[in-house]
């Protein structure tokens, strides 16, 4: 597996960087070991110094993430019947499956958009959406929203860090990563509050 961060740094001033962004964001949609966030943040920092075009960084990352989310969804659709056969009625796994199916039906947009900001959550949500047979058109609409917002906030985290800390690249990366974690934490906190309200 290539060192994506080193590859990104070596291609910062090259148009090939956008192909790397498409590839890394696509693979990260279903392979947890591929580090898309640090790569996109580095590209955002490069945008602040004029080495890359921040709009193209966001666009390339969005395209890759969107295509990547279709992979687990498609696998889920193909494996749906087999998965159901292994989930007998009354088991905990079947209960969890039924709950997720209801959640997608009731608030599919919220589930698909919010889980995009949670590394493990994005794989589970898109794959399960395919298994439960969530409508493709609605899935693509919400995934388009989730991937574009995720790409924008990740790239702009790096960009803002680069703007304010151009003399210290390490500090810019730290600020970018910190902003990314802050947004992710806010999303998770809002989900926690929402669950508490639902329980009441």
From TrEMBL:
Signal peptide: none annotated. It is a multi-pass membrane protein. It is found in: Cell membrane. InterPro entries: DedA_domain (IPR051311), VTT_dom (IPR032816). Keywords: Cell membrane, Membrane, Transmembrane, Transmembrane helix. Residues 34-159 form the VTT domain. The chain crosses the membrane at residues 16-34, 54-76, 139-164, 170-190. Its main location: membrane. Belongs to the DedA family. This is DedA family protein. It comes from Streptomyces vulcanius.
